[in-house]
Q: What sequence folds into this?
């Protein structure tokens, strides 16, 4: 049978079109039904989600760490001020506040999965009406597990959901290398037996003292340093303390998280009781640039580097990569 030239061109065109279509299909999420367990149940998905909405900053930074830009994020300006790194994507929907998501904005963002933590779990059923919703938390879990361990578990859970398990392991390995490098810098400067307090100064007489299971407290543990506070903490792993709690710590390396109101700083640091604290008398007070104490693994690594910079007096080496 003979083919005319136009018929050859037609079949060739069909072959090219078919090949292009197959290639396009190959780039789509795999159609493989899978069930994922989260803190409040199970969700079965037929495709790998790519458009995520998130309820907090720890989930935000975890997705970005995996190379995924969330399509809906709450309180972006707060993220930029406190979390800082990794940087937010150029384009996303403003989801409102971390406690009260904007449901109209959520609908317009068209997510194919929503990630939340227990602090907004009361909205799980309503959120599930917009897209499959999964609960993954680092804090307020009723567990004494160190926050950095839970942050790693959260990253692995999100990575499994997004088909990026290998990427999660690469991120975790990088984070631990950064923490160890920061620890070595600190040990070289103050020795192996240094004890640290990590505190947020609320006003002249009220302080948020982070315990050993907090994110920054568990980073200290991973670095091999003791936490000066071993007393009770709340579900967020900190104690709302006062000056008497600081006085009990003795001569420690006192790291406080910026920002502190200028009037508070002047009043506290010039007070007789502050000047009598051993850590203040001995010059062991270190200011840490704004850092998110309730973040994920990248916040943990950034804190370790900022702490090392403060203790050694070096220019910052912290990054979000």
A:
């Amino acid at each position: 049978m003979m083919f005319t030239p136009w018929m050859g061109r037609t079949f060739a065109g069909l072959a090219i079109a078919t090949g292009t279509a197959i290639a396009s299909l190959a780039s789509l999420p795999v159609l493989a039904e899978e069930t994922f367990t989260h803190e409040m149940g199970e969700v079965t998905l037929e495709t790998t989600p790519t458009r995520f909405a998130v309820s907090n900053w720890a989930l935000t930074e975890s997705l970005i760490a995996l190379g995924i830009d969330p399509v809906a994020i709450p309180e972006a300006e707060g993220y930029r001020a406190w979390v800082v790194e990794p940087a937010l994507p150029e384009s996303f929907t403003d989801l409102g506040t971390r406690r009260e998501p904007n449901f109209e904005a959520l609908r317009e963002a068209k997510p194919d999965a929503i990630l939340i933590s227990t602090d907004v779990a009361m909205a799980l059923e309503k959120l599930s009406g917009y897209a499959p919703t999964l609960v993954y938390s680092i804090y307020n879990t009723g567990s004494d597990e160190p926050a950095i361990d839970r942050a790693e578990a959260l990253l692995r859970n999100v990575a499994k959901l997004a088909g990026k398990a290998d990427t999660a392991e690469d991120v975790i390995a990088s984070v631990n290398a950064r923490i160890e490098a920061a620890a070595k810098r600190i040990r070289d400067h103050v020795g192996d037996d240094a004890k640290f307090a990590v505190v947020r100064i609320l006003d002249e007489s009220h302080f948020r003292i982070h315990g050993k299971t907090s994110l920054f407290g568990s980073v200290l543990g991973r670095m091999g340093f003791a936490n000066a506070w071993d007393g009770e903490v709340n579900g967020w792993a900190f104690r709302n303390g006062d000056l008497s709690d600081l006085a009990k710590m003795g001569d420690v390396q006192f790291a406080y998280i910026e920002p502190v109101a200028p009037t508070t700083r002047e009043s506290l640091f010039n007070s007789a009781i502050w000047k009598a604290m051993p850590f203040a008398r001995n010059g062991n007070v270190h200011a840490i640039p704004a850092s998110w104490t309730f973040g994920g693994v990248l916040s943990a690594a950034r804190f370790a580097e900022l702490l090392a910079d403060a203790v050694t007096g070096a220019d910052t080496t912290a990054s979000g990569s």
User: Anything to note?
Assistant: The chain has a mean pLDDT of 90. The first strand starts at residue 34 and ends at 38.
